[in-house]
């Protein structure tokens, strides 16, 4: 994709601060009024019109009774269709199950497939709730550090193989596209992971929630689509919530590759892990079936914003390490070359009044890193970057 035009995009750049601050979601509601938030992975953009229209129509019909889904919700077929159309993956609708949240999907799979004390390999840095889940569930996290190279963040496949073998891992939690580094793994890289999984008989739990937020020429490849062996050992987790800014609808899907695990899941009491809201299904279907035009505009804005973040940081903070994200709306910044004397999250908040995320919640060796959410308007992003560059610029040298 070429550099985005230098024009504002209606619906994405005309966001007033008063409107943003009046929102009840945690991103803008929790910080003090003079703070600009760029922390939690939630976009600032309004809900896509097709989703709002579909929800309004359902409410106007007063149609809020029990849904008649004897064979599962319509999401199962819609998911399989979208995977085939978007990624060429022949996912089976019969293997799809609905849940209320991606983290719940992960927790349920770990509950069914592993036991307390079992080792689980995980890329680091990583999404903090995933790492917290492993601790809370008494699963032994085996970090496999991503390597920061001149060409961007890379997985160390030899280290993955060694860690899995040495620790006796039962599963690998794979995040692709990767949060927080923004890497999109290539087919060759995924093949290396598949070889490790086959060699050590690993269950692969693949978080692909950012799949539709990859920037050309990078393209997401579902891990389960690699081969018959990969399909049989992979559980795929995803949702429309990231690509369409719908976190509050609480709707996600899990595609179960292993027969035994799917049978075990279906043998549980049907409501033990909660049931998905019909309105969440309505919103997801509307996004997948009618939201593509909105998403194309979104990717234009996000592509422009990621390039702007990269350019400002390169020009104003040349010592700071940062790679242009290949996917997501998150930038992962290494402030350690600047020699900060205190955690950068705290300094940027105190001196710049910008709330970012980062540090130890993202795993071992994440001290000194910041995660910046650039899914906001041009004007808000410019102010965020100006404040961050000003505060961190005083530390250079």
Automatic annotation (TrEMBL):
Pfam families: Aminotran_1_2. It is an enzyme of class 4 (lyase). Keywords: Aminotransferase, Lyase, Pyridoxal phosphate, Transferase. Gene3D superfamilies: Aspartate Aminotransferase, domain 1, Type I PLP-dependent aspartate aminotransferase-like (Major domain). One of its GO terms (molecular function) is transaminase activity. Its cofactor is pyridoxal 5'-phosphate. InterPro entries: Aminotransferase_I/II_large, Class-II_PLP-Dep_Aminotrans, PyrdxlP-dep_Trfase, PyrdxlP-dep_Trfase_major, PyrdxlP-dep_Trfase_small. Residues 43-387 form the Aminotransferase class I/classII large domain. PANTHER family: CYSTATHIONINE BETA-LYASE-RELATED, PROTEIN MALY. Belongs to the class-II pyridoxal-phosphate-dependent aminotransferase family. MalY/PatB cystathionine beta-lyase subfamily. This is cysteine-S-conjugate beta-lyase. It comes from Streptomyces lavenduligriseus. Its EC number is 4.4.1.13. SUPFAM superfamilies: PLP-dependent transferases.
């Amino acid at each position: 994709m070429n550099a985005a035009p230098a024009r504002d995009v209606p619906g994405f750049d005309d966001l007033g601060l008063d409107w943003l601050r009046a929102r009840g979601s945690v991103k803008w509601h929790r910080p003090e009024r003079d703070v600009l938030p760029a922390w939690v992975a939630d976009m600032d953009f309004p809900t896509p019109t097709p989703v709002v229209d579909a929800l309004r129509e359902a409410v106007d019909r007063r149609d809020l009774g029990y849904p008649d889904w004897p064979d599962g919700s319509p999401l199962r077929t819609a998911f399989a269709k979208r995977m085939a159309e978007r990624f060429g993956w022949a996912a089976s609708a019969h293997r799809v199950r609905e849940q209320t949240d991606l983290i719940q999907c992960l927790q349920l799979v770990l509950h069914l497939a592993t036991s307390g004390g079992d080792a689980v390999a995980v890329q680091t840095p990583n999404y903090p709730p995933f790492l917290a889940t492993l601790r809370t569930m008494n699963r032994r996290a085996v970090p496999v550090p991503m390597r920061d190279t001149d060409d961007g963040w890379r997985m160390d496949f030899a280290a993955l193989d060694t860690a899995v073998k040495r620790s006796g891992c039962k599963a690998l939690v794979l995040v692709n596209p990767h949060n927080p580094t923004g890497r999109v793994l290539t087919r060759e890289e995924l093949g290396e992971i598949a070889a490790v999984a086959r060699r050590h008989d690993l269950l692969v739990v693949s978080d692909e929630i950012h799949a539709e937020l990859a920037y050309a020429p990078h393209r997401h490849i579902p891990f389960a689509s690699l081969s018959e062996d990969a399909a049989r050992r992979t559980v795929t987790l995803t949702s429309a919530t990231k690509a369409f800014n719908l976190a509050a609808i609480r709707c996600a899907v899990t595609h179960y590759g292993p027969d035994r695990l799917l049978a075990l899941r279906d043998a549980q009491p049907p409501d033990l892990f909660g049931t998905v809201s019909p309105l969440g299904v309505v919103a997801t279907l509307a996004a997948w079936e009618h939201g593509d035009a909105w998403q194309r505009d979104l990717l234009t804005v996000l592509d422009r914003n990621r390039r702007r973040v990269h350019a400002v940081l390169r020009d104003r903070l040349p010592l700071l390490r940062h790679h242009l994200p290949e996917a997501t709306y998150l930038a992962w910044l290494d402030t350690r070359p600047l020699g900060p004397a205190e955690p950068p999250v705290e300094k940027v908040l105190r001196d710049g009044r910008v709330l970012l995320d980062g540090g130890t919640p993202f795993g071992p060796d994440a001290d000194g890193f910041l995660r910046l959410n650039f899914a906001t308007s041009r004007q808000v992003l410019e102010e965020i970057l100006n404040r961050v560059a000003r505060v961190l610029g005083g530390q250079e040298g």
